[in-house]
Amino acid sequence: MSKQVTTIEWKEDKLFLLDQTVLPNVVAYRSFDTIQGVWDAIQDMIVRGAPAIGVTAAYGMYLGAKSIETSEMSEFQKGYKKIGEYLATSRPTAVNLSWAIDRMIDFSQKNDQLTVDKLKEQLLEEAKLIHKEDEEINYKIGENMLSLLSDGCGLLTHCNAGALATTKYGTATAAMYLAQEKNWDFKVYSDETRPRLQGSNLTAFELHQAGIDVTVITDSMAAVIMSKGEIDAIIVGADRVAANGDVANKIGTFNLSILAKNFNIPMYIAVPTPTIDMQTKTGAEIPIEERDSHEVIKGFGEFTAPKDVKVFNPAFDVTPHENITAIVTEKGIVRAPFEENLKKLFE
Ligand SMILES: CSC[C@H]1O[C@H](OP(=O)(O)O)[C@H](O)[C@@H]1O
């Protein structure tokens, strides 16, 4: 079994999160026991990655439930809904956040025959179940993705859709960990992924420490690597897949999809079904988070542009479904026509 970092752990009645803002230089865990702390952890990207955000939110919804001081169930439910509305404002794009919040609220409403104290205990169990399910889902995504790859392949990934973006295995990296267990001879190129550099400080960190052959490239080198025939497949994660198969993912994914078409390289999206949002019809409807300008012009500590210059910093872009070869989920491999075939995942 390959060595993987632990991103999220519930122990001593607290949530422990690996602080991803200080990787790869420092491996440090921070503990959280309030809903406000969880909100900050998601917004500040101490924890990030759609599935990891969802699991964190589930524990956050338990911590929020604990803070509601009433034994009257209707009062509790009203307060719980407000806790969910608050936590949903921490980041807008990854649908796993609202998916986890909605699941915890649905669970509380379906179990309102319990006492409030008993319900709170059960909410923690539901959060732990969501945690366990994520690990199982990622393993299955890896198995399905592996069926599309071959020993000796060269892979390109973008941002971090790895163990660090989930509870284990990752989505895009799951196949890489499984290929390592099969002693495949393969190599991975990781786009550093400006401006937050998740590809170099997270993906390269986790793959390198697991002993996987990983090479960091700048985002602008992707075309050259593809032109040299080094890449047999591009595998990325997603923050939200619309009903028509459009994919919101880290900024720069759309660029890769255009290059992939040019070089006739398959573009695979590795994604758990909770990231597929059938209520959002097309990518145009997906809210795209814009983050602070300093991520772009002060990412290395010093200003790399005039302090007051205009900066555009969308954290994500939308890759049109026409540029996608397949969406690989735990339930199977989905190809075009995506609208029709994604629906089948939920029948
Ligand atoms: C397993 S999907 C992770 C997905 O989330 C990342 O965004 P962020 O680091 O801002 O949370 C990136 O888009 C990854 O593909």
Automatic annotation (TrEMBL):
The active site is at D239. Keywords: Amino-acid biosynthesis, Isomerase, Methionine biosynthesis. The keyword Isomerase applies. Gene3D superfamilies: translation initiation factor eif-2b, domain 1 (1.20.120.420), Translation initiation factor eif-2b, domain 2 (3.40.50.10470). The record marks C159 as: Transition state stabilizer. InterPro entries: IF-2B-related, IF-M1Pi, IF_2B-like_C, Initiation_fac_2B_a/b/d, M1Pi_N, NagB/RpiA_transferase-like. It catalyses: 5-(methylsulfanyl)-alpha-D-ribose 1-phosphate = 5-(methylsulfanyl)-D-ribulose 1-phosphate. Pathway: Amino-acid biosynthesis; L-methionine biosynthesis via salvage pathway; L-methionine from S-methyl-5-thio-alpha-D-ribose 1-phosphate: step 1/6. The keyword Glycosyltransferase does not apply. GO terms for molecular function: S-methyl-5-thioribose-1-phosphate isomerase activity. Substrate binds at R48, G49, A50, R91, Q198, N249, K250. Its EC number is 5.3.1.23. One of its GO terms (biological process) is L-methionine salvage from methylthioadenosine. Belongs to the EIF-2B alpha/beta/delta subunits family. MtnA subfamily. PANTHER family: METHYLTHIORIBOSE-1-PHOSPHATE ISOMERASE (PTHR43475:SF1). Catalyzes the interconversion of methylthioribose-1-phosphate (MTR-1-P) into methylthioribulose-1-phosphate (MTRu-1-P). NCBIfam families: eIF-2B_rel, PRK05720.1, salvage_mtnA. This is Methylthioribose-1-phosphate isomerase.
